[in-house]
Design goal:
This protein is 29% helix and 23% strand. With 551 residues, the protein is an alpha/beta fold. The protein folds into two domains: 382 residues, ANL, N-terminal domain (Rossmann fold, 3-Layer(aba) Sandwich), CATH 3.40.50; 92 residues, GMP Synthetase, Chain A, domain 3. It holds the Pfam family AMP-binding.
């Protein structure tokens, strides 16, 4: 019988990829400095019609680091970033490390309550945010936090195009009680902070879990985690400094921090940013910059496939397109390759694994499980062990469904100030992901669903993901989300929420019949409700808990 210790997935590895990855850098700041030495004047960031070189990022981050030190920031302090995908994010990140501090990345969609929780939990002393976010949200939160310095900046910096699709009505505004980032950089221009170094175990980032099953927890991503995951992406996809990274994933999220920022630093390669997602702006970016690599949530690819103006040529430069953060249905993966000739590769990971733990080899067709219909998320990346366990923690054989467990160099040091939660989820230096899945005999892994989302219909287990995939096989369906709702006879029964593709129509009865033909009687949805949009996190995960639980 195949065992996990035999690592059957090794036979699927891309040519030249070793089972173990040897670290090249002890910390992320050293990685940045190495890139600076190699290519100081190469284009590092493109932002609409503006660009920054590594030398310019180095100079600006030196100045900002000196400003932070002058404001009393000490080693180990936390600096919170509350920004969209703008160049200042990268400048502030490098400056934070140069000042010896830990970066706290905050979702720019966070409202007052959420921002207040993250600032209080992290104990951040500095907040760097967009001017409009300060005006709308942060000004009410900062007075009750430990923040002593607020630095604001504008999304209009570093470019002159000011695309009206994104920036209509936006103007630069200076708010009382704040410092301006550009003014601080000018004030401290030419000054250099003291040299500093980090151990691989030092915390580089506090990235907060999405909170889909509870209050967000601060994952302590170390410098060693960051450099390992950047190297993993580079080596797995065969990326070089000639590649162009499309930064469509939110920079605040672990995917954006690793697959956008850390990876582009490591190569070093151009990182293309465009503030926030807009499908028209994204198409313009694809046409103008011809990016070769990206990691994006599946809704991004669905939006591209649904855009009537999108062509095969628009996608032709993307030789390495990966999708993570939310499950990819086989139907949508097939539609995308048929429409554009571009394969969407699966990638799986969590905030706690500093992005990728499993990836589909570049160019490979991930298998689809014939029983569940799930598309494989890939195989464990180098130096990584993944297992499927039962409720007692014992290994399950290939094909058996259980909880996915991961161990490896990308596993975070724990949760910030939560030792009990850390021990529960990561005791023994292996992560209980909360995701349910299985491994086949060839070593391919499949994610079935979240453990807490299982529906119990008359004693039968129903995994929402399987029903969602079947719904997405219908030509009219864009996206689907399935939940359990109370039922007097069955205890729980299946309800689906569906969005339709533009210009398509289908009735509830037709969709139920579509599922009934393809699924066991206890699995197909008994009711379907149509929605314009499903509630999601910014990384594309459907928030099933926000869907009504009634017939």
């Amino acid at each position: 019988m195949t065992t996990y210790d035999e690592r059957p997935w090794l036979s699927q590895y891309p040519p030249g990829i070793a089972a173990e990855l040897l670290p090249e850098f002890t910390d992320a700041l050293s990685m940045f400095r190495a890139a600076l030495t190699r290519a100081p004047d190469n284009r590092a960031i493109t932002y609409f019609d503006g660009q920054l070189s590594l030398r310019e990022i180095d100079d600006m981050s030196d100045a900002l680091a000196c400003a932070l030190l002058a404001a009393g920031v000490q080693r180990g302090d936390r600096v919170a970033l509350y920004l969209q995908n703008v160049p200042q994010f990268i400048v502030a990140l490098v400056a934070t490390w140069k000042a010896g501090a830990i970066l706290v990345s905050i979702n720019p969609m966070s409202r007052q309550r959420e921002l207040g929780h993250l600032l209080a939990d992290s104990g951040a002393r500095v907040l760097i945010c967009l001017e409009d976010l300060y005006d709308d949200i942060a000004r009410e939160v900062v007075p009750s936090s430990q923040v002593t310095l607020v630095i604001t900046t504008s999304a209009l910096e570093h470019q002159t195009r000011n695309d009206p699709r994104l920036f209509a009505g936006l103007a630069k505004v200076r708010h009382e009680g704040t410092m301006d980032l550009a003014e601080l950089v000018a004030q401290y221009a030419g000054q250099r902070p003291p040299e500093i170094s980090f151990a691989p175990s030092d915390v580089a980032l506090l990235t907060y879990t999405s909170g889909t099953t509870g209050a967000p927890k601060g994952a302590m991503n170390t410098h060693g985690n960051v450099t390992f995951s950047a190297q993993t992406l580079r080596d797995w996809c065969g990326l070089t400094s000639d590649d162009i990274v499309l930064g469509v994933a939110p920079l605040f999220h672990i995917t954006g921090l690793i697959a956008n920022i850390a990876l582009s630093m490591l190569l070093p390669a151009e990182l293309v940013l465009h503030y926030r997602f807009d499908v028209g702006v994204l198409l313009d970016t694809l046409r103008e910059r011809r990016p070769t690599f990206t990691v994006a949530a599946i809704p991004v690819f669905i939006a591209l496939a649904s855009a009537p103006e999108a062509t095969r040529e628009d996608m032709a430069s993307l030789r390495a397109a990966y999708s993570g953060g939310a499950p990819v249905s086989p139907a949508w993966a097939n539609r995308f390759i048929e429409q554009f000739g571009t394969r969407i590769h699966g990638i799986y990971g969590l905030t706690e694994t500093t992005s990728p733990s499993h990836m589909v080899p570049l160019g490979a067709q991930a298998p689809t499980d014939p029983t569940s219909g799930a598309l494989s998320v890939g195989i464990p990346v180098p130096s990584t062990m993944s297992r499927i366990v039962d409720d007692s923690g014992a290994d399950l054989p290939p094909g058996e469904v259980g909880e996915i467990v991961i161990s490896g160099p990308q596993l975070v040091a724990g949760y910030w100030h939560q030792p009990e939660e850390t021990e529960h989820a990561m005791g023994g230096r292996r992560l209980l992901t909360g995701d349910v899945g299985f491994m086949d005999a060839d070593g391919w892994f499949y994610v079935v669903d979240r453990k807490k989302d299982m529906i119990n219909a008359s004693g039968f287990k129903v995994w929402p993901r399987e029903v969602e995939d079947v719904l997405c096989e219908h030509d009219a369906v864009s996206e689907a989300a399935v939940v359990g709702v109370p039922d007097e006879y069955r205890g729980e029964t299946v309800k689906a929420y569906v969005t339709l593709r533009p210009g398509m129509a289908v009735t509830e009865d037709e969709l139920i019949a579509h599922c009934k033909e393809r699924m066991s009687a206890y699995k197909y949805p008994r009711s379907i409700e149509f929605m314009d949009v499903l509630p999601k996190t910014t990384t594309g995960k459907t928030l099933r808990r926000e869907l009504p639980r009634s017939h």
